[in-house]
Amino acid sequence: MVGYMGVGKSASGRRLARLMGVPFFDTDEALRSQHGGTIPQLFAQHGQGGFRQLERKVLMDMATAHPDALISTGGGAACHADNMDFMRANGVVVYLKMGADDLTDRLQGKSDERPLLAGVSAEALPQFIAKHLAEREVHYRKANITVDAAHLDGERLNSVRNLIEAEWAVKP
Length: 172
Fold this sequence. Notes:
Number of helices: 7
Shape: globular
Distance between the termini: 20 Å
Low-confidence stretches: none
Largest sheet: 2 strands, parallel
């Protein structure tokens, strides 16, 4: 599961994994568990490049060890190295899509939890998110399935499950 920070990958992923009867893993949770500290602390400690390497290793290890699991990734995971190609080759990728305005509402006041938002003022946040989302969108659009995450209720999650299962059935 991929998408911009704050879109709901972890919460929706947990719900969807339960519906599908598969294990759920979150790369951010694994990073915190394996390396200690919060995501902002790991970002500060390792820098963005080092953090992305740790994130990639966690993603690859999870996908290899748990091929039938649902894995929620950090917002930037799909945009670095060949992570998206790896995910598509090893599963079905779902992009949770949300507009910049909705994301701005969700992320307002969360700069202490989101390293990429550190130092971005409340006034600059809408423009920052719109620009950053546009840059990442090229990667997110490579997903097998795109879902409007603004109204992701139980009925929609059932539809997503059906789409994933249909896509998985035709995977080579």
